[in-house]
Amino acid sequence: QVQLVELGGGLVQAGGSLRLSCAASGRTSSRYFMGWFRQAPGKEREFVASIRWSGGSTVYANSVKGRFTISKEYAKNTVYLQMISLKPEDTAVYYCAVGGSPGGPWDYWGQGTQVTVSS
Q1: Is the peptide bond before 88 cis (omega within 30 degrees of 0)?
Q2: pLDDT tens digit string along 14-28?
Q3: Theoretical Cys-Cys bridge with 70: which of 41, 42, 49, 55, CB 3.0 to 4.6 Å?
């Protein structure tokens, strides 16, 4: 079992920045990928970014490339999502997840953290 706890959501004006964190505990593995997803009201959950725990290769959704950066901190078993130039359409509940490959399936999920971007 892997437990994930997200922190860092909040309300920000368009153009602003936020950093989300996701702390993992339990049976983590260097073979894992960690990802960020988001779900806006009335929409399906969508992929945002992922990072390989060992090696650090990253993948981003086109909608966030150049604005969001995913990174990791080994010592804290934590993954971050730095978000800049935020837009109202970035408003969503953001979830982190752990899986065995960047394309899924994603086996463990956090509880989510709300990000609201006002215009």
Answers
A1: no
A2: 999 999 999 998 877
A3: 49
State the DSSP string of the chain.
Answer: -EEEEEE--EEEETT--EEEEEEEEES--TT-EEEEEEE-TTS--EEEEEEETTT--EEE-TTTTTTEEEEEEGGGTEEEEEE-S--GGG-EEEEEEEESSTT--EEEE---EEEEEE-
d(CA 79, CA 53): 9
* CA–centroid distance for 54 within its chain: 17
Give per-residue pLDDT as tens, 33-92. 999 999 999 999 999 999 998 888 999 999 999 999 999 998 899 999 999 999 999 999
